[in-house]
Amino acid sequence: MKKLLIMCGTGVATSTVVTNKVRDWLDTQGLASEVRLYQGKIADEMGRIDEYDIVISTTIVPPEIKEKVIMGLPLLTGMGVDEMFNTVKQQITA
After folding, report:
1. What would the mean pLDDT of 19-41 be, rounded to a whole number?
2. Is 86's pLDDT higher than 90?
3. The domain that contains 47 carries what CATH number?
4. Domain of 9?
């Protein structure tokens, strides 16, 4: 089972919106049983970012973790959603 972290600046507002959208997408893709979702704020998760297989963020991340993070802004703006979910799906099925 893959561990997927969704984080934002405070771990409350935008990460909740994105978590709900990701959960719905996982259900429609038949992938919900393959992923365990976690939600948090970036300040709390920086020290344990490597514990997760997939990380989606709605906030700017430091350069040292940028390659590991998928930007979740498309789920807030509606632009680039398919591309973002394709990236997530590739990481789930890898």
Report:
1. 97
2. yes
3. 3.40.50.2300
4. 2-93
